[in-house]
Design a protein that fits this description.
It is a single chain. By secondary structure, this protein is an alpha/beta fold. It has a single domain, classed as NAD(P)-binding Rossmann-like Domain (Rossmann fold, 3-Layer(aba) Sandwich). The chain has helices spanning 18-28, 42-56, 72-83, 101-123, 150-166, 169-175, 203-210, 219-232, and strands spanning 9-13, 34-39, 61-65, 88-91, 132-137, 177-184, 238-241, 248-249. An eight-stranded mixed β-sheet has the order 3-2-1-4-5-6-7-8, with helices on both faces. A hairpin with a 6-residue loop joins β7 and β8. α1 crosses α8 and α4 (101-123) runs parallel beside α5. The longest helix is centred in the middle third of the chain and has 23 residues, at 101-123. The relative contact order is 0.15. The mean pLDDT is 95.
Length: 251
């Protein structure tokens, strides 16, 4: 069953730049009710909102300053007070720096889980919710492995398992909340401009040899895949976005 983004209220964490911004723009092209961009950097957040509002209408996009580790309750309450219902949550905020072990797990794993559970409870149909969709922006590193960023790998493998379990068809049939993952390949964003590996000896090899051999894509490619996944994906599934190609189911 093809789903429609029209008139939906959408929340995107880390939505001011890169993949988050591209998803916001792709969703705005489908005439939602509103896209709510969350980001820690206020300057980037306001700039993103200004640019998107100029193209799609000032009432179509709004920005809240937000640190996903600490601001969930305050921001959630603010969103519900203003918009009553959220139809789509996109967990996109993330970090790629393997020297920050705890921070990586806090942002990439704990925060994504906490935000998912909060909005899942809001959406669940057995408690007067209207159903909804949670999209976890994961990574090819959620199911592929190389030797360079083990902490980042661990965080993304965790979200893959979380998505498949919370989004399991049993849970979806019982509660009416769809949970899916998008797994972008190498994408030209600020996140990968200075990827920090776990040991200095391999940083040069990683950045100069390994990364140059990969199949790269623009953030807009992931934005298109996000729409495709929203419209068509079953709950508990994960979808590859690589090399600018259409979405491919991850087995």
């Amino acid at each position: 069953m093809k789903r429609d983004l029209k008139n939906k209220t959408i929340v995107i964490t880390g939505g001011a730049v890169g993949i988050g911004y591209a998803i916001a723009e792709s969703f705005l092209q489908r005439n939602p009710r509103v896209v709510i961009i969350l980001n820690t950097n206020e300057e980037r957040g306001r700039e993103a909102t200004k640019n998107l509002a100029a193209k799609y209408g000032k009432n179509k996009v709004i920005y809240y300053k937000c640190d996903v580790r600490t601001d969930l309750e305050v921001v959630f309450n603010k969103i519900i007070e203003e918009f009553t219902t959220v139809d789509v949550l996109v967990n996109n905020a993330g970090i790629l720096n393997d020297t920050y072990l705890k921070k990586t797990i806090d942002i990439n794993v704990i925060a994504s889980m906490e935000w998912s559970f909060k909005f899942w409870e809001h959406m669940r149909m057995d408690k007067a919710g209207k159903g909804g969709t949670i999209i976890n922006v994961n990574s090819i590193y959620g199911y592929r492995a190389d030797p360079y960023v083990p902490v980042y790998h661990a965080s993304k493998f965790a979200i893959m398992g979380f998505t498949k379990s919370l989004g399991h068809e049993y849970n979806f049939s019982k509660y009416g909340v769809r949970v899916v993952a998008i797994c972008p390949g190498f994408t030209e964003t600020k996140l990968v401009e200075n990827m920090i590996t776990w040991t200095p000896e391999i940083v040069e090899e990683f950045n100069n040899d390994y990364l140059k051999k990969q199949l790269w894509q623009k953030p807009e490619a992931v934005g298109k895949v996000a729409v495709e996944v929203f419209e068509n994906a079953d709950s508990g599934t994960a979808w590859l976005s690589e090399g600018g190609q259409p979405a491919t189911l991850v087995e």
